[in-house]
Amino acid sequence: MTACGFLVATSGLQNAGLGSDETDIVLLGYALVDMTRNQVLGIQEYVIKPLSADINANFLSDEVQVETRLTEAAIRTSGVTLSKALSLFEGYCSGLGVSPYSLTLVTDGQLPLRQCLHPEAANKDITLPLYYNQFADLRKEVPSMYASDSVFTNIADILTFLDIPNSEDTSFFSKELRDMVNIIQRVISDGHKFTANESIQLYLEPGICSRDEEVDSNCVVRARGLPWQSSDQDIARFFRGLNVAKGGVALCLSPMGRRNGEALVRFTCGEHREMALKRHKHHIGSRYIEVYRATGEDFVNVAGGSNNEAQAFLTRGAQVIIRMRGLPYDCTAKQVIEFFEGGEKPCSVMGAEEGVLFVRKPDGRSTGDAFVLFKQEDDAPKALSRHRDSIGVRYIELFRSTTAEVQQVLNRTMETPPAPLPPPMITPLPQVALLPQHIITSGTRKDCIRLRGLPYEAQVEHILEFLGEHAKNILFQGVHMVYNSQGQPSGEAFIQMDSEASAAAAANLRHNRYMVSFGKKQRYIEVWQCSGEDMSLVLSGVQGSPGQGAAPVPPQPPPPAGDGIRWTDGITAIGPYIVPRMPPPPVFYWPYASPPVSPPPAAPLLIMCGEYPIEGWGFDCLGNVQPIGLHTSA
Question: RRM domain: from which residue to which, for each copy (predicted)?
Fold first, then answer.
C-alpha cells in the first residue's frame, strides 16, 4: 500500500485561487510513501510547458514564482507537455516496482485534482488513468484522524496543528511537496492509513426529477452563454472534476421551445457548487460561460415533471436521448425505427416502439417532435449522423436531449392554453422592455457595428454564430435588436464592441458574408463600423448612412395627453417620420446581454418620437397617450 502526495501548480493563482483563473498547469509533484514501512520511496517533479510559453514573454505570475521558484527560462528549456509528464510518472513507478493503480493519491485540498488536472485534461482531450479519479484530502483526513474541529486552509495550518517545523529542503521547486511528505509520515506513524474517500465522477448519469422533489438550493448553479448546440454531457464536461447529481443538467428552453443558452446544474453537495462558481467566465471553445447561484426551486421548475407517460419513458435506463424535429404529422414509431436502422451507421432504438415518444398537443394532434431512446453512449454519434436526412419528403432535425428537456417539452405541450382575451378597442403598443438611450452608448469612438439584412427568424445566438470569433469582443449587454412598431424584427441590430479595432475587424471580415440559412434562402449580412454617436442619432430619430454622420431633423414636441394618437402600419425604418400631430411608429431596441446571456436590468418605458424621448408620456389600456413619470411602467 502506497500513499502518493500529489501537488499541482499553475501559471496563475495559487492556494485558494488555484484553478479559478483557467491558467495552465506548470508543475506536477509526486511523493511516494510506503504506508506499511512508513518509508519514502521517491519524490518526483515534472515541469510542464504551457501553450502560452511560446506566445507570451512573461507567462508566470509573481505568486507561482514565489511559491515554487520556477522561472520562464526553466519551463521553456526543460518543460514537457502534460500528457508526457503523466506518462513519465507511470514509467517512474514501474522502475520502483510500484503499480500506479495501487496508489492512494493524497492532496492538499480539493483543488489540485478537481479544479486543475481534470478540467485541463478534458480541455486537451487527455484521458487520465483511473487512479486520478479517487484521492484522500489532507484537510479532511487530519481532523478526522485526530478528532478535531479545526478547519485547515493550507499546508501551513496542518504543520502548525501537528507541530511539525517547516521544511528547509531547497532541492525541489516546491517546498510544499516536502512538507506534505512530513505530514503524511507523521499521520502514518500515529496509526492512520490513507484511503481514497473522495471520488471524481467522469460522466453524467441519467436521472429524473419530479415536481414534488425538494432540491437543496446550496447545490444549484445557473450557467449562461452556452453554445446553443450544447448537450447535457457537454455541460457536465465543462464542470469536469465536480460531481453532478443524476439527471442534474437541465437545459432551459425559450417560449418557442428552443434552447436559450442557459442551463441549471445540480451538484451532489454544496462544496462542489462553490467550486463550480469559481469557473465563472471559463470557456467552452471560444465562448466564455457565466456561472451564478440558483435555487432548488429554479431547478425543479425547469427539470421537474409530473407527466406519467414521460416518467415511464424516462425510467427505461437509456444512456442517450435524441430529439427529433420536423416529423410528418402522420409519422409512426415504425417509421422512426426504420429511419435509424438505415443509412451508413445504423443503430437500434432501445425497446423498439416503446423507445419512441411522440410529443402531442392536449387534443392529441402531433407537434412534429419526438424523443427516441438509445441504450449505449456509442449510439449517440451514429444516431446524430442522420441529421437532416428525410422521412418521406420532410428532412428531420436531430439533437442530443436530456431527461429535463423531455419533461419541459411535455409539460408545455400538455398544458391547456388560457382562453384568449377579447381584443382591445385600439391595438395597444407591444409590451417590449426598452433600454433607455442614455444607457446604450455615446461618443465618437467607432466601437460599434451595425448589422442590416438579418433574417426575421434570426435570434441573438445566430448573430453570435455569424460573428464567430469576433463575438468574444462584444460588451456586456452589447447586442441590441431593432424591432418594428408591431414588435416584429426589422432585420437590423446594433452591437457594441470592446474597442474600435474589434469593431473594424468585425466589419471588415464579416461584411456581406452569409448567415446560416433559414429555409431555402441564404441571406448576406451588411456590417458597418459606426460610433456611439451614430447609434444615438438613430435612436433620437436622425437618419443617416450606416457608419456615417447624419444631419439632424428638427425635433417635434410630444403630443398632449388624450389626443387620440394613431400609429401608422408597416415596418419602421431607421430614421424619423415627421407627420404633424401624428408621431412616428416607435423603433424598439431590445437589449440582449451577450455573450454570455444575462438578464437585462429593469428599464423605464422610453418611446422615441422624432429625436424627442417621451419620458413623461405613456399609454393606457386603450392605446391613448397619458402622462407618466420616467420610472413608471405603462
Answer: 320-403
Tell me which amino acid residue 329 is. Answer: Y
Q: Which of 302, 319, 208 is nearest to 251 (CA)?
A: 302
How many Cα atoms sit within 13 Å of 37 on the Cβ side? 6
* Average pLDDT of every residue of the chain: 81
Q: Which three cell numbers stand for residue 570?
A: 408597416
Calpha distance 580→601 (Å, rounded): 35
Dihedral class, residue 97 (left if φ above 0, else alpha if ψ from -120 to 50, else beta): left
| Nearest Cα residue to 511 out of 463, 558, 451 | 451
Q: Do 13 and 63 form a contact (C-beta atoms < 8 A)?
A: yes
Output phi, psi for 362, to 5 deg. Answer: -55, -30
- Condensed to tens digits (0 to 9), the pLDDT of residues 346-385 reads 999 999 999 999 999 888 899 999 999 999 999 999 999 9
Q: Collapsing DSSP states into helix, strand and coil, what is residue 262?
A: strand
Q: Please spell the DSSP secondary structure of 412-469, one letter per residue.
A: HHHSPPPPPPPPPSSPPPP------HHHH--SS---EEEEE---TT--HHHHHHHHGG
**Residues contacting 431, CB < 8 A, separation 6+:** none
Q: Is the peptide bond before 596 cis (omega within 30 degrees of 0)?
A: yes
DSSP state of 377: T
Q: What mean pLDDT comes out for the span 86-114?
A: 96
Alpha-carbon distance of 186 to 159, in angstroms, equals 10
Verify cis geometry, omega within 30 degrees of 0, for the bond prior to 424.
no
The partner residues of 103 in beta bridges, in order of sequence, read 2
In the numeric block, the cell 423605464 is attached to 604
